[in-house]
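Students often ask why inverse folding is considered easier than folding. One informal answer: many sequences map to the same fold, so there is more than one right answer. In these notes we will look at a single instance of the problem. The structure comes first.
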């Protein structure tokens, strides 16, 4: 074979020697071997180790296609006895440990997955979508090792997102100053969240000044234990959402009462007024405003529930002290409104009063976190779902984590 260094450069196999090239059917197989001195390192930690044996025959790694021809690297895979990880396959310079594709192949798949849809990536690279998912997780882990994602955090938002049926959730942590996704893991409990703070470390936990989250019972214990000096803020969106849910309960009760009384037309009109009641008063169309005017004239309890919801929205639009004063007035109004759903909301707000007060005083919300969750849902929909959390986390980190994979050979 002529000019093996040219083949090594084309395939991106620095630290290896090309021994031969042959066509096997419609596939190109390039035989390589590690240079002397490169074949004694553990594939997991990269530490120099004692040679254990020659392994179990030769292995193949899928490389980038040459033109329209599939290309594979083939090499012996000796094993070393690492003091930390035991017997492991030797580290190769062209691929990650336990991978069956080269780093160049992985980088191109990662770049395509960020910019293209599922079918385009799978068809262009001629791999299954499940394989793409594991490549995304691998590329994300490699980039995360090379970049300190948790540096400089001061204000963070914490939320959970459902990524699959059957109560499968991710916890996401967002830098509220930059809107960047800094951490994600499968789960929705105190134990999972504490993994983030353990990874952050005590010194950097002490630098966290504000934590914005919803009313999940699993969040306060982890935050209080790991960041006792941080100000915990209740996300205003979720507080208003409590009032919206209470409004819908009142609407359902009024609708059922109209049906029991045989007022079919009223029941139909109340059902069709759902979106008019849900929307903010400053975003109503003419037809929705007409529906509200009809409710005001015909159903005083339902209109009172709408006004309660709107006034709670106004609480978070006012400056700190004004918002707090209006919040106290709202709680008193809700408790004396005669509407049980809103009386319950008033009790919930009193229970979380300190965190809500912090949100009003410091002007902190989870808006950037909620926006990021929406984009993660779009990733899931564009990809037609994921079989596990790792590929979704990998793709989300590549898209929203502040680093993006580079195309091979592009610097």
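Output (designed amino acids):
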């Amino acid at each position: 074979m002529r000019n093996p260094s040219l083949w090594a450069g084309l395939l991106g196999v620095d630290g290896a020697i090309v021994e031969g090239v042959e066509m096997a059917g419609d596939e190109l197989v390039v035989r390589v071997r590690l240079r002397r001195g490169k074949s004694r390192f553990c594939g997991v930690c990269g530490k120099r180790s004692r040679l254990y044996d020659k392994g179990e025959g030769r292995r193949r790694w899928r490389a980038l296609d040459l033109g329209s021809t599939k290309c594979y690297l083939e090499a012996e895979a000796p094993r070393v006895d690492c003091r930390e990880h035991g017997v492991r396959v030797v580290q190769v310079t062209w691929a990650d440990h336990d991978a069956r594709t080269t780093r160049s192949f992985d980088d191109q798949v990662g770049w395509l997955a960020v910019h293209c849809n599922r079918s385009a990536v799978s068809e262009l690279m001629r791999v299954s979508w499940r394989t793409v998912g594991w490549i995304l997780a691998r590329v994300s882990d490699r980039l995360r090792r090379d970049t300190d994602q948790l540096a400089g955090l001061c204000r963070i938002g914490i939320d959970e997102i459902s990524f699959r049926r059957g109560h499968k959730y991710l916890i996401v942590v967002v830098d509220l100053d930059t809107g960047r996704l800094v951490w994600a893991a499968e789960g929705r409990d105190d134990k999972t969240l504490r993994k983030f703070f353990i990874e952050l470390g005590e010194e950097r936990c002490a630098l966290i000044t504000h934590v914005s989250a919803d009313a999940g019972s699993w969040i306060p214990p982890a935050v209080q234990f790991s960041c006792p000096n941080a100000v915990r803020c209740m996300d205003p969106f979720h507080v208003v959402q409590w009032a919206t849910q209470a409004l819908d309960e009142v609407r359902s009760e009024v609708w059922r009462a109209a049906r029991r009384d045989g007022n079919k037309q009223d029941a139909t009109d109340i059902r069709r007024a759902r979106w008019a009641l849900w929307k903010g008063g400053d975003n109503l169309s003419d037809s929705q405003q007409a529906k509200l005017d009809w409710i005001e004239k015909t159903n005083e309890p339902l209109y009172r529930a709408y006004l309660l919801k709107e006034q709670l929205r106004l609480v978070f639009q006012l400056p700190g002290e004004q918002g707090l004063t209006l919040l106290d007035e709202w709680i008193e109004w809700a408790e004396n409104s005669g509407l049980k759903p809103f009386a319950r909301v008033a009790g919930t707000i009193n229970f979380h009063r300190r965190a809500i007060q912090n949100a009003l005083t410091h002007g902190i919300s989870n808006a950037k976190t909620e926006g990021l969750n929406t984009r993660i849902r779009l990733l899931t929909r564009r990809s037609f779902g994921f079989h596990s959390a790792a590929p979704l986390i990998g793709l989300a980190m590549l898209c929203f984590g502040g680093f993006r994979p580079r195309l091979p050979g592009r610097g």
